[in-house]
Specification:
alpha+beta; Arc Repressor Mutant, subunit A; BirA Bifunctional Protein, domain 2; SH3 type barrels; seven-stranded mixed beta sheet; five-stranded antiparallel beta sheet; 10 helices; 14 strands; 30% helix; binds biotin
């Protein structure tokens, strides 16, 4: 799906949440009314909630603040500013970094307004409607190789919660290994994609999808979810949150690279939403039932099963309907 120039201009006009007549939009942009209507349909297909009223024109259901490099960069130290790439509609921010011809430096970030092939964990799709979430990926290469990334996904989850707290969003918790929960529902997901040979540096693409204000209709998400708008009633500035995420993630990854998981174990215990709760752990096609008892020093999940403590390095706690 392409996101062309005319479509961007139409969206910039509609972003104020006011009515705009198809005729005037067409005149301003040198398009026929039919072409405007086709672009509006294209925007709706990307998940934007636009309605039309005869005699008044088109209107976005809610005003939209678009992501802007300048707004994000001004909230970050200068060294980070050239490391941020804001895209409009792309397949996936993780894929964007993976496809780069030149390996980026640590902390390089790609953000997008929408993804047409957003990826989730376990081969799932990450539903990515336009302008209603943060879709962000950061690149980081760990010189210490695979051994150096034990617990990495936990550290990213902690960084996301810290960024939310910076914006006064309280009460976010974590589900091992790295889902962010708010009010008993999933708020954000994290996908870590790793490339590297044994004994060599390990290149990681760290993808974060965080729900801000998702459209209410036509969303096919197969688990209980929430977004910041419905959970907090707050209007979150996505540019501010993107900057906070980049800042917290960079700080956390520098600490993790230098000191490993140890400095994060205490915080994980405070944020462990499923601690002492009975859960089902999915490992491949297998299911294991037990009670969560926190994490081991290397970030593995500790499950109590039949009175014995067992350690699991992989898998995912499932809360989906059976
Ligand atoms: C999960 O299944 O919980 C992980 C979801 C990760 C989604 C994010 S959105 C930005 C980045 N790009 C992708 O294609 N996926 C991740």
């Amino acid at each position: 799906m392409t996101f062309n120039f005319s479509r961007t201009l139409i969206l910039q006009r509609l972003a104020d949440g006011q009515f705009h007549s198809g005729e005037l939009l067409g005149q301003e942009l040198g398009l026929s009314r039919a072409a405007v209507s086709k672009h509006i349909k294209g925007l709706c297909d990307l998940g934007l909630d636009i309605f039309s009223v005869t005699g008044k024109g088109y209107r976005l259901a809610k005003p939209l603040t678009l992501l802007e490099h300048r707004k994000i960069a001004q909230l970050l130290p200068q060294v980070m500013q050239s490391q941020i790439n804001v895209q409009n509609v792309i397949d996936s921010t993780n894929q964007f970094i993976r496809d780069m011809k030149v390996t980026p430096s640590n902390g390089y970030v790609c953000l997008a307004e929408a993804q047409t092939a957003g990826r989730g964990r376990r081969g799932r799709t990450w539903v990515s409607p336009y302008g209603s979430s943060i879709y962000m990926s950061m690149f980081w290469s760990f010189a210490g190789g695979y051994q150096a990334i034990n617990g990495l996904s936990l550290v990213i989850g902690i960084a996301v919660v810290n960024a939310l707290q910076k914006l006064s969003v309280k009460g976010a918790m974590l589900k091992w290994p790295n889902d962010v929960y708010l009010q008993d529902k999933k708020l954000a997901g994290i996908l870590v994609e790793v490339e590297g040979q044994m004994g060599a540096a390990c290149d990681c693409i760290l993808g974060i999808g965080l729900n801000i204000d998702l459209p209410t209709k036509n969303l096919e998400i197969d688990q209980p979810w929430t977004d910041l708008a419905q959970a907090t009633g707050m209007t979150i500035d996505r540019n501010e949150l993107a900057a906070a995420l980049i800042d917290e993630l960079t700080k956390a990854l520098n600490t993790f690279e230098e000191h490993g998981l140890k400095p994060f174990i205490h915080t994980w215990a405070e944020l462990d939403y499923f601690y002492d709760k009975p859960v089902k752990l999915l490992i491949g096609n297998e299911s294991v039932f037990g009670t969560v008892k926190g994490i081991a020093d290397d970030g593995a999940l500790l499950l109590e099963k039949d009175g014995k403590l067992e350690t699991y390095h992989g898998g995912e706690i499932s809360v989906r309907p059976a």
